[in-house]
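Continuing the batch. This is chain 6 of the set; chains 1 through 5 are on the previous pages. Same settings as before, nothing changed between runs. Recording input and output for traceability.
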Amino acid sequence: MIQRIQTFFLVIVALGSGLLPLVLNLWTDADGVAFFAKNELWISVVFYAIAALALLSIFKYKNRQNQFVLNRLNMILNLFLLGFFVYRSLNLSGENTISEKGIGMLIPVFSIVFLVLANRAIKKDEDLVKSVDRLR
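Output for chain 6:
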């Protein structure tokens, strides 16, 4: 159902992971060159996979358990991407010249937060359906 709150959270994840990496830089190297997700193929593929999983999860509204599992899988994918960004930022900070971390590195953090909120809403819906089934 489109009017549920978890759909709103999943749309935010899909739009954030699909569009924001194209606009926000992930980091700026020592030469002052901004690095975007489109500069490296596998990073952009991971961002698009996160967005696609969020969209797929939206259309799995009839099966809440599958929706819950897809969101968990999406969180794991976000954690791998976040781990790479943390590793990369630790390597950037050890340079002799100054380099900047971009705001785009926080996209997986916000995605994880919204996926957790969506899973809480899915769990709430599932509990509501189970309680109604007990009354029958």
